[in-house]
Amino acid sequence: TDQLLLATDADAKKHLSELMFQYGRYLMIACSRPGDQPANLQGIWNEEMRAPWSGNFTININTQMNYWPAEPANLAECHRPLLDFIGELAVTGRQIAKTNYGCEGWCAHHNADLWRNAAPVGDWGAPPADPVWAIWPMGGVWLCQHLWEHYAFGGDLNYLRQAYPTMKGACAFILDFLVEGPDGTLTTSPSTSPEHNFITPDGGRRALSVGSTCDLALIHDLLTNTIEASKALDIDADFCARLRQTLDRLAKQRILPDGRLAEWSHDFPEADAHHRHVSHLLGVHPGRQWTGTSEEGRSMMAAARKSLEMRGNASTGWSLAWKINLWARLGDGEQALDCIRILLTPVTDRSEQWQGGVYLNLFDAHPPFQIDGNFGFTSGVCEMLLQSHAGELHLLPALPKAWPDGRVRGLRARGGVTVDLIWQGGALVRAELLSERSQQVAVRVGDQTRSTELLAGERVILTP
Questions:
Q1: 127 prior amide bond cis, ω within 30
Q2: Fewer CB atoms < 10 Å away: N or C end of the chain?
Q3: What is the pLDDT of residues 409-460, one digit of tens each?
């Protein structure tokens, strides 16, 4: 493995990418089984008596990233510990919503633990309890995305019936938490963009504002998913009418004069132009708000691309993994591969902060070691080869030129479809689809889309 990491030839790099992809699946199988605790920042591989960040569940990106590959990499049963965790966190989160905000429903902040703590925390760095850590009650909102995605991939209505009350509870919190802005739209206040500050006109560094893009994207995702869940279960029509009205009044995400997607509701300069968090791009990934299927979607995708270009690819390990997924959603396999190349850079100095890569055993280097970059890598490769978030099966959406020939078996798409692919010369040669239920699906290759009928349990072969 160490020789592969240090090799420079293209074949070694391709083999290393394959190994890293399967390694992420192995790590999930090893550390997340039904009945277990969900994977935390170090999975089960912490070597310290007091783990970095206490070995907690950081739920403003890291815990979620741990489980991004669970469904597309065909390990849905390994998703179960997190799904159970979310329901348990909602119990403590209900008390926090009532005590801290006077709101119905439930919420959680950026950090949870074995005892399902949902309260604000922030005793790290200087000063302690900095609002950039502490004031972010969107953790539960983001986690509910996993409840919906497990249903979207598997289609189990009995499961959705059990998960729906937790999603509804997060919506109830949002309905109470939103405030009306001067223009009549609904927004969040106070609001932060996770772990990032902006510069005020007097030169100060601040975190608190109103209606960050991250908040708005997460709320749009939660309300949209809950509305779809209600429709699938044929329940709660009146409640979902309220959700639709709230969606219609939700403040809009903005594009800055320089073409980037705004991170805050005002044109604040960033405190760190290359900050590792890219939370304002949540509508692209892991959300599904912005796709290229509408004029507005194309504009927002272009703005997200501009933001990602300005941030740059070089970052910490887990941030690089997120960017692989983002570039894949933007259809740019070359940029995704550039992030893969940086992520697979060997790190030998464990004291070097904020310089991502992997250690010689392929563990992700934040540094220090975190496991989320490994899982995010596997998810990113899935997104490069197959996407299904936009209502269609998009085959090879972000295939880089350096991977001209290949095959993959057993990828999973939303709707309960298993997909095998073979490609040569950068073009699809054969796709095999196996659906758990009879359905009509749109299959896209390049710019061409065709409708395909799938019968439950019968394999369908597609060729050019």
A1: yes
A2: C
A3: 999 999 999 999 999 999 999 999 999 999 999 999 999 999 999 999 999 9
Residue 212's contacts (CB-CB under 8 Å, 6 or more residues apart) are 188, 191, 192, 193, 263, 264, 265, 279, 280
DSSP 151-193: HHHH--HHHHHHHHHHHHHHHHHHHHH-EE-TTS-EE-SSB-B
Tens of pLDDT along 117-139? 999 987 655 556 688 888 999 99
pLDDT top residue among 171 and 360: 171
Choose among 384, 448, 396, 438: nearest CA to 415. 438
Q: pLDDT of 72-85, one tens digit each?
A: 999 999 999 999 99
Rounded to whole angstroms, what are the CA distances from 255 to 35, 122, 156, 316? 44, 31, 38, 26
Cβ–Cβ under 8 Å, residues 191 and 215: yes
**Quick one: average pLDDT of 36-46?**
94
Residue 52 structure tokens: 């970095």
Does the N-terminal peptide bond of residue 368 adopt cis geometry, omega within 30 degrees of 0? Answer: yes
The per-residue pLDDT of the chain, averaged, comes to: 95
C-alpha dihedral over 121, 125, 129, 135, to 10 degrees?
Answer: -70
pTM: 0.97
pLDDT in tens, 405-423: 999 999 999 999 999 999 9
For the chain, helix, strand, coil in percent to 5 are 40, 15, 40
Hey, what's the torsion of the CAs at 259, 262, 263, 267, to 10 degrees?
Answer: 110
Q: In the chain, what percentage of residues exceed pLDDT 70?
A: 97
DSSP 261-292: BPSSSS-PPBS-TT-S--GGGTTTTT--S--T
Conformation bin of residue 71: beta by default, left when phi > 0, alpha when psi is -120 to 50: alpha
pLDDT band at 9 (very low <50, low <70, confident <90, very high): confident
Helix H or strand E segment including 439: strand 439-445
Q: Is the pLDDT of residue 201 over 60?
A: yes
Task: Of 404, 451, 410, 407, give the one whose Cα is nearest residue 434.
Answer: 410
Query: CA 404, CA 460: separation in Å to the nearest integer?
Result: 24
**Radius of gyration for the chain, computed over Cα atoms and rounded to the nearest angstrom:** 21
